Amino acid sequence: MCPSKRASIITGEQNVDLISDLIGKMDEQGLDRVEAASEAQAKWMVHVAEVAAGTLYREANAWYTGRNVPGKKVVFMPYAGGVGTYERICESVAADGYRGFLIDPAQTRASAPRTTAQSAAY
């Protein structure tokens, strides 16, 4: 998730470019399925929590923590490390072959359950 609701104005174009480039590379290689690897998701959420730990954001009774919904797990999802840092992380992920993403060709979907071993080497 990008740095914040306000920052989405700034990072929105960067996010669109990142995903558009990924889709283009997938199309060139006949790949059409992508999702974030579970391990990458968990690692990102740990990083987001570590960055936010030194802020008051996590204490807010707001939609972005879930604290405003009784019984909902409280999780701080926006990235509080700054727009520049977020963009550098995204650029690094893309430069490293979309590290943390599982990308598959169409035929793996129809022929067999998906495994990490079937994923393209991105």
Automatic annotation (TrEMBL):
Its cofactor is FAD. One of its GO terms (molecular function) is monooxygenase activity. The keyword Disulfide bond does not apply. InterPro entries: FAD-binding_Monooxygenases (IPR050775), FAD/NAD-bd_sf (IPR036188). It comes from the Bacteria. Keywords: FAD, Flavoprotein, Monooxygenase, NADP, Oxidoreductase. The keyword Disulfide bond does not apply. Belongs to the FAD-binding monooxygenase family. This is Cyclohexanone monooxygenase. It comes from Sinorhizobium fredii (strain USDA 257).
